[in-house]
Amino acid sequence: MRRPQRPVPSPDDSSPPATAPGTPPPGRPGNLPAELNEFVGRERELADVVGMLEESRLVTVVGVGGVGKSRLVTKAAALLEKRYCDGVWLVELSAVHDPALLEHALVDALGLTDHTSRPPRTTLLEHCAERRLLLVIDGFEQLVDACAALVRDLLRRAPGLRVLAAGRRPLDLDGESGYPLATMSDEDALLLFAERAASVQPAFRLTDRTRGTALELCRRLDGIPLALELAAGRLRALSAEQVLQRLDDRFRLLTGGSRGALARHQTLRTAIGWSHELCAPEQRLLWARLSVFAGQFDLEAAEYICSGPDLPADSVLDVLSGLLAQSVVLREDSAVGARYRLLNTVREYGAEWLAATGDTDRLRRRHRDWFLGLATWCELDWFSPRQAEVAARVESELPNLRRAMECSLESPEEAHLAQYLAGALWFLWVGCGRLSEGRHWLEHVREEETPYDASRLKALWVLGYVAVLQGDPVGAISALTECREEADLARDAVASAYAVHRTGCLALVTDDVARAQELLQEALGRYRELGELNSNVLMAQVELAMTVAFQGDLDGAVVICEEVRDICEDHGERWALSYALYVLGFAALQRGRPARARELLGEALAISHTFHDLLGTVLTLELLALVTVIEGDAAEAALLQGAADGIWPSVGLPLFGSAHYGGPRARCEELARHELGDALYASERGAGGKLNTDAVVARALAGRPGGRRPGTGSDGPEAPEAQPPAGTTRKPAASPVGEGRA
After folding, report:
1. What are residue 124's phi and psi, to 5 degrees?
2. Which span out of 19-28, 241-250, 704-713, 723-732 was modeled with the highest average pLDDT?
3. Quick one: angle between helices 316-325 and 281-290, nearest 10?
4. What percent of the chain has pLDDT over 70?
């Protein structure tokens, strides 16, 4: 590393003459190394660090190994060089392990020579006391206590000194401003990989063919700059596709850093291993055990899964805090509180150590058991005022829930646990917009033969439920018939009741309204006998109300849904409430009260969108489109219809192919086409198809009723009477059998 020239003292510089002990020779402004390749991306991070140095005298950039801390601080320091008349000085400490050598390392980096018997600390303090300089300290983790004490003394004695440090943990000094450096964004990571790849393979370019592979590679490597540079180096011998295929053994693959790189940056294993060496034994143990998590985790899960005689549960918080300080574990705030995460590369390193201890299987089972318990609790709590919290929790835990199901399916003796888990998560599949994934898991566990009838039967009726909502009557009737027959043989009255209920839902969405009413009434009778009261039971009532409404009895439908609304308010239930509001909105519109319908449907839409319930969202949008055209804004109605068109492919068969559910859509199209003409209608509908769900929901909730005809009153022109307009409106939202209300 070359040492650039030291600063020439200005005429008013009060520093001692160059010949004084401890003073560097004149004419050298600092020792920052020249850049050997282009600094890519990180514009926001650079601006942040530079801005922080204007406000604080000590800024510490912290992050996991290989994330680019060293390069960022040296780049930031280079941008600030002209502001420090006495220079910007880099002190690289990664090779220093003895605290007694710390002060000597700083003296050497500053180019000071002092042949007196004075301690090196005295030399440093005297040199810095009257100077304006920036000290860049990199790789201090193994000397953190000694380094913190020295930096504290320097800052106290040298008012013109500022320190920019880079390490895997902060110095923990008063006045320190910490800057956690995250991994690179997808865009920056792509740019870095492409630039480094081109340096070893000049023909490499980001094209339509290579971009997808490069992006997947960047994501698999967590956007860690060191990993990206090492992967790019492999393009001398491999294609990008081959590098991607070999990433399962990334620690063997990603070696061979440049000769000029620091030793700890020669290979990915060495970079991560450096962090491992800095950890205390109990921190290494927790790191290994945390590798069983997929995605985020919380403290309670870590305490249960990772504790043991060698790591008591009440010590996990302190040990975890140490890993956070070392940048091994990342903290992320979420809707459900503080969460923690290991980068994939860090997790894989820990998994290797866990495998070496022979404890992997035991930890995976503890992980599985914890998340079985979590799913059980969440299913019970779904019918409560904590419903929104439950939805947020299971969304954040989905990677771990997937891993728990995978673990259970690996052993035939434990397959029933996967069936139990897939069934218990029905509210996630149907209430939180994950029908497709739910179908995947439910079909998978259905194939497992187990002696645990209750778990298998529940998975079957949930599978039938999901298939109904996706508009797949064949798949639905297959699962529900199998469930009912096996439930009768096993004398499982609960599973039998749910099978009857979901069969009624199927009849509803396939327009066999009389049969649907009969089955839903039977199911509700069975639920009463069993003492069942939950969101599913309320959905059965809402679906029954829909059958009544489709047969022209709006008053009967309203009575049922008002009862559901009262129960929901008593129990804090929101998801089933959204469907009851949908039916009430449907009835209000049929009675010629579009303003009231908009109010009810707006509340339903807000709830559905909160739960990411695409079925409830799209059904409500379809009905709101009809309200909008009746209110006089045909263009906005066409736009909402186009937006609904864009959502349906993520749900299933539009409006289940039902004439009853499709009626409002058909009527809306008829009115809007008449008002706009075919060309303008098609244009507005096409524009709606380009809106994302968040945008269209915000637009629908804002409401854009157009000009109302004079004399029509606050409710606008009278709505067509109770026959569901011919067309394509959908089924009940995110409920059994798309039982949302159309």
Report:
1. -65, -45
2. 241-250
3. 90
4. 84
Name the CA radius of gyration of the chain, rounded: 33
Residues 6 or more apart in contact with residue 606 via CB below 8 angstroms: 697, 701
Classify 164 as helix, strand or coil.
strand
pLDDT, tens digit (0-9, with 9 covering 90-100), for 566-594: 999 999 999 999 999 999 999 999 999 99
CB-based burial, 79-110: b 16+ in 10 Å, e otherwise: ebeeebbbbbbbbbbbebeeeebbbebbbebb
- In whole angstroms, what is the distance from residue 436 CA to residue 678 CA? 35
Query: 3-state class of 702 per DSSP?
Result: helix
* Cα→Cα distances 459→46, 394, 404, 425, 575, Å: 52, 18, 16, 10, 21
Whether 62 contacts 327, CB under 8 Å = yes
Residue 661's identity, in one-letter code, is Y
Q: How many CB atoms lie within 10 A of CB 515?
A: 16
DSSP assigned state of 161: E
What DSSP element (H or E) covers 91? strand 88-92
Q: What does the pLDDT look like over 135-161, one tens digit per residue? A: 999 888 888 889 999 999 999 999 999
Asked whether 467 and 475 are in contact (CB, 8 A), the reply is yes
Phi, psi at 340, each rounded to 5° = -130, 160
Structure tokens at 86: 């006495």
User: Which H/E stretch holds residue 338?
Assistant: strand 337-341
Structure tokens at 300: 């309670």
Sheet hosting strand 161-167, strand order edge to edge:
88-92, 133-138, 161-167, 58-62, 176-180
Residue 25 tokens, joined = 């020779």
User: How many Cα atoms sit within 13 Å of 489 on the Cβ side?
Assistant: 8
pLDDT at position 704: 55
Whole-number pLDDT of residue 336: 81
Q: How many residues does the chain have?
A: 742
Q: How confident is the model at residue 723 (pLDDT cuts 50, 70, 90)?
A: very low
Beta strands 330-334 and 337-341, pairing class: antiparallel
CB-based contacts of 351, cutoff 8 Å, min separation 6: 288, 291, 292, 360
Q: What is the pLDDT of residue 38?
A: 77
Would strands 161-167 and 176-180 be described as parallel, antiparallel, or unpaired? unpaired
One-letter identity of residue 182: A
Q: Which of 468, 370, 385, 387 is nearest to 421 (CA)?
A: 370
Q: Supply the pLDDT for residue 44.
A: 87
C-alpha–C-alpha distance, residues 391 and 537, integer Å: 19
How many helical (H) and strand (E) elements, i.e. helices and strands, does the chain have? 33, 7
pLDDT at site 232: 73
Contact 183, 67 (CB under 8 A): yes
Helix, strand or coil for residue 469? helix
Question: Position 460: which residue type?
Answer: L
Question: Residue 215 CB: number of other CB atoms within 10 A?
Answer: 16
**How many Å from the N-terminal Cα to the C-terminal Cα in the chain?**
71
Q: What is the DSSP letter of 711?
A: T
Q: Dump pLDDT digits (tens) for 523-542.
A: 999 999 999 999 999 999 99
Q: Alpha helices, DSSP H only, in 234-384?
A: 240-245, 250-253, 268-278, 281-290, 299-306, 316-325, 344-357, 360-381
Nearest to 462 by CA among 450, 473, 476: 476
Q: Decide: 702 and 639 in contact? Cβ < 8 Å.
A: no
* Strands of 397-469, DSSP E: none
